[in-house]
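User: Here's a structure from my thesis project, written as C-alpha cells. My advisor, Dr. K., wants to see whether a designed sequence matches the one we expressed. Can you design one independently, without my sequence as a hint?
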C-alpha cells in the first residue's frame, strides 16, 4: 500500500459506521478460518503466511523488521480502534458507562494469554510503567541488594538506580556474555553474586540489546530457594513467546503488547503473582488502590483511553485465530534462518545465541569495519527494510538488531543477508 492509498484507507475507515467495521472484521476472521481449515500445516513459510501478511496495512511496501521498538497493527485491530474512538467521539455516555465494564473480560483474556489468573493481571500503559511500579512499590531497607544484569534496558535500570539513591539500597550488575554459552552460565553468574542481603533479582526476560531470552524458570527456582523475589522486563515477550507465568515461576513481569502483540501504543500489562501482591505498594493512588485481592490495585491511573482496551482485545483475537504455537514457531524459524546465514558471512559477529531456548525473534549482530548506521541506511535505501542500531561499546554489543515477526517472509530475510554480505565485502 503506497502512502496516498494508506491515508485514503485511514480516512475511509475513520468515517465508516460501527456496523461496517464489524462486518469488515467478520470477513477477515472468516478468511483466516478458511485458511486454517484448508492450509493447516507446520510450514514456516508459504501461501498461509502470505495471506496473513495481507492483513497488515504497510505503506509504500515497507518491510518492518524493527517491531521490537514498535510493531504494526493488523487490520482488525486498527478497525476496532477506529470503531471505539468513533463511539467515544459520538456518544461519550457509552465511553464511561459501558466501555470500562468490558475491561474485566479483557483482563481474563490477558490472563489466559500469559498463563496467569485474572486477579494477577494489571492493565497499564507500558513496560516502563510496570518496572517503575515494581521498584517504587517494594519496601526495601538501606543495604538491601538488588541484582540486575549488565544488559538492562534503561527502564529496567533507572528505577532501581533511583531507588538506590533515595532509599540506600545497593544495586549490583551481574555480567552476562553476548551471547552466553548456555543457561547454566547465566544461572551460575547470578548464584555467585547472591548474598544474605540479596532481596530482588530484576532482569530482562527479552534482552533488547542482544536478543537473549532469559531462562526465567531456572532463575526463579534459584531465587526462591533463597527467598529472593524475581522481576522481569519482558517488553518483547507478549506476542513473541508462548507464555505461562505459573510455569516460569516468576513473581513480577511487565510487557508491552504494542511491540510483538499487534496492539496500539499505550497498552501495557503487569503480572503480579498472587502471593507477593501484599509486598508491593501502588505508586499512583485513586479509588481501588487498597484492593488487596487483585492486581487491579496497580492500575488506578484515572480516566483512560478505553478504545485502547478494545483494540488490545482484538490483537489477542487475531493472534489466537492464527495460533500462538504457530506464530512462535514461525518467528523462531525465520530468526534461525537469519542467524545461520549471518554466521557464514566473514566479519559478522552474532550477539544472539544460536540456542532456540535462549533466543527467539530478536537477532543482534555487528559487522567488522562497518558502522551500524551504514547497515541500517543501506538496507532501507536498497530494500525498504527497517532495522535499528543497538548496543554499547562498553559491553561490546554495538551493532544492529533485526526483528523477524510472522508477517516477514524468507525472501525478506534473505534480502537482509544479501545486504550484509555486500557491506561485509566492501
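Assistant: Designed independently from the structure alone:
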Amino acid at each position: 500500500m503506497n502512502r496516498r492509498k494508506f491515508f485514503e484507507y485511514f480516512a475511509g475507515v475513520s468515517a465508516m459506521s460501527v456496523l461496517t467495521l464489524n462486518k469488515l472484521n467478520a470477513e477477515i476472521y472468516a478468511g483466516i478460518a478458511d485458511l486454517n481449515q484448508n492450509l493447516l500445516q507446520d510450514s514456516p513459510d508459504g501461501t498461509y503466511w502470505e495471506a496473513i501478511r495481507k492483513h497488515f496495512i504497510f505503506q509504500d511496501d515497507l518491510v518492518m523488521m524493527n517491531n521490537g521498538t514498535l510493531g504494526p497493527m493488523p487490520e482488525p485491530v486498527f478497525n476496532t480502534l477506529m470503531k471505539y474512538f468513533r463511539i467515544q467521539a459520538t456518544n461519550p455516555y457509552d465511553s464511561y458507562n459501558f466501555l470500562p465494564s468490558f475491561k474485566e473480560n479483557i483482563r481474563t483474556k490477558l490472563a489466559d494469554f500469559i498463563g496467569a489468573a485474572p486477579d494477577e493481571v494489571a492493565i497499564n500503559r507500558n513496560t516502563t510503567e510496570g518496572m517503575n511500579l515494581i521498584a517504587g512499590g517494594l519496601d526495601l531497607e538501606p543495604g538491601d541488594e538488588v541484582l540486575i544484569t549488565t544488559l538492562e534496558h534503561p527502564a529496567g535500570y533507572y528505577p532501581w538506580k533511583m531507588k538506590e539513591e533515595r532509599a540506600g539500597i545497593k544495586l549490583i550488575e551481574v555480567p552476562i556474555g553476548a551471547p552466553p554459552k548456555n543457561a547454566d552460565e547465566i544461572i551460575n553468574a547470578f548464584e555467585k553474586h547472591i548474598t544474605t542481603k540479596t532481596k530482588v533479582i530484576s532482569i530482562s526476560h527479552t534482552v533488547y540489546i542482544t536478543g537473549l531470552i532469559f531462562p526465567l524458570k531456572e532463575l526463579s527456582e534459584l531465587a526462591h530457594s533463597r527467598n529472593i523475589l524475581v522481576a522481569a522486563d519482558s517488553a518483547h515477550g507478549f506476542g513473541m513467546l508462548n507464555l505461562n507465568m505459573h510455569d516460569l515461576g516468576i513473581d513480577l513481569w511487565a510487557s508491552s503488547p504494542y511491540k510483538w502483540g499487534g496492539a496500539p501504543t499505550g497498552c501495557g500489562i503487569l503480572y503480579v503473582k498472587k502471593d507477593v501482591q501484599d509486598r508491593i505498594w501502588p505508586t499512583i493512588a485513586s479509588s481501588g488502590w487498597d484492593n488487596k485481592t487483585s492486581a487491579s490495585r496497580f492500575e488506578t491511573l484515572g480516566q483512560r483511553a478505553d478504545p485502547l482496551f478494545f483494540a488490545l482485545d482484538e490483537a489477542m483475537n487475531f493472534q489466537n485465530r492464527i495460533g500462538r504455537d504457530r506464530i512462535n514457531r514461525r518467528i523462531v524459524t525465520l530468526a534461525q534462518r537469519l542467524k545461520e546465514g549471518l554466521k557464514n558471512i566473514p566479519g559478522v559477529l552474532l550477539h544472539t545465541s544460536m540456542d532456540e531456548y535462549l533466543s527467539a525473534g530478536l537477532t543482534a549482530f555487528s559487522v567488522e569495519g562497518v558502522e551500524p548506521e551504514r547497515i541500517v541506511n543501506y538496507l532501507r535505501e536498497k530494500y525498504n527494510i527497517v532495522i535499528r542500531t543497538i548496543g554499547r561499546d562498553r559491553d561490546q554489543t554495538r551493532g544492529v538488531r533485526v526483528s523477524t515477526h510472522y508477517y516477514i517472509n524468507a525472501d525478506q530475510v534473505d534480502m537482509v543477508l544479501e545486504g550484509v554480505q555486500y557491506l561485509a565485502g566492501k
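When you compare it with your expressed construct, this may help: The longest strand covers residues 198-204.
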